[in-house]
Design a protein that fits this description.
three-stranded antiparallel β-sheet, globular, alpha/beta, seven-stranded parallel β-sheet, single chain, binds 2-amino-2-deoxy-6-O-phosphono-alpha-D-glucopyranose
Length: 259
């Protein structure tokens, strides 16, 4: 696993955006580039940079198909707290992606099990995910795979941990009662199947979880530690997120990037 440490949130986001844009460009057009995407505050800088690059014609989503990681159960697409709305407002409305190539789990689906199974099948028939971009929750979760999730898990309905409900209340006027209690999410197995995984982690509030993910063993109580078992994974972080890492760990990863 690679750990890329940048000075701050802006630089980390810009690095990740440029990296992904480079991957999309060098992929060619013979097959669609299948990109997994997250929501949350961590990827915001990445999306802003991608929009800028598209406007400057340095990046195009014409050959990109996307699959989002997760969605709340019970929120219609138009709801201001839904991940559908988040993605439209922060990325899709501003880039040249064909709307037919955007896939996000439907939190209002009548048959949720079928919706989850269809999602897995759609990813497979698109050729699998080339690059899964993700964030990390303060408790080490990835997508909505809460601590204790099986590393073999696939797309499914998940009850949210209280910590996640508390963290995400900021997107619901700070009102805990408005935060959905369950969500649909790709599984850890789904993420591990991607040919490449890039995770953006910024801020001091992520430092403890990042230490567990990087310095402790693979542990289902810190779901993102699954990355230690992935052959092509990068965590992009800012200095603040490294606050709880050992000095030696930071030096090691920084020296790797200097070559
Ligand atoms: C939510 C999302 C995750 C995201 C996490 C972190 O729980 N389901 O995919 O990584 O929040 O969010 P933030 O980047 O806002 O800290």
């Amino acid at each position: 696993m690679r750990l890329m440490i940048l000075d701050n949130r802006e630089k980390a986001g810009a690095w990740a955006a440029r990296y992904i844009a480079g991957r999309i460009k060098s992929f060619g057009n013979s097959e669609p580039f299948v990109l997994g995407l997250p929501t949350g505050s961590s990827p915001l800088v990445i999306y802003q940079e991608m929009v800028k690059m598209c406007r400057a014609k340095e990046l195009s989503f014409k050959n990109v198909r996307t699959f989002n990681m997760d969605e709340y159960v019970g929120l219609p697409k138009e709801h201001p707290g839904s991940y559908h709305r988040f993605m439209m407002e922060n990325l899709f409305d501003h880039v040249d992606i064909d709307p037919k190539h955007i896939r996000i789990l439907d939190g209002m689906a009548q048959d949720k099990e079928k919706e989850c199974g269809d999602y897995e099948r759609a990813i497979k028939s698109a050729g699998g995910i080339e690059l899964f971009l993700g964030g990390m929750g303060g408790n080490g979760h990835i997508a909505f795979n809460e601590p204790g999730s099986s590393f073999a898990s696939r797309t499914r309905v998940i009850d949210l941990a209280q910590e996640t409900i508390n963290d995400n209340a900021r997107f619901f006027d700070g009102d805990l009662s408005k935060v959905p209690k369950s969500a649909m999410s790709v599984g850890i197995g789904t993420i591990m199947d991607a040919r490449e995984v890039v995770i953006i982690v910024t801020g001091k509030n992520k430092a403890r979880a990042l230490r567990s993910v990087i310095e402790e063993g693979v542990n289902h109580m810190y779901p993102l530690s699954c990355l230690q078992m992935h052959a092509n994974a990068t965590i992009v972080c800012d200095e603040d997120a490294t606050d709880e890492l050992r000095v030696g760990t930071v030096r090691y990863f920084k020296s790797m990037e200097k070559g």
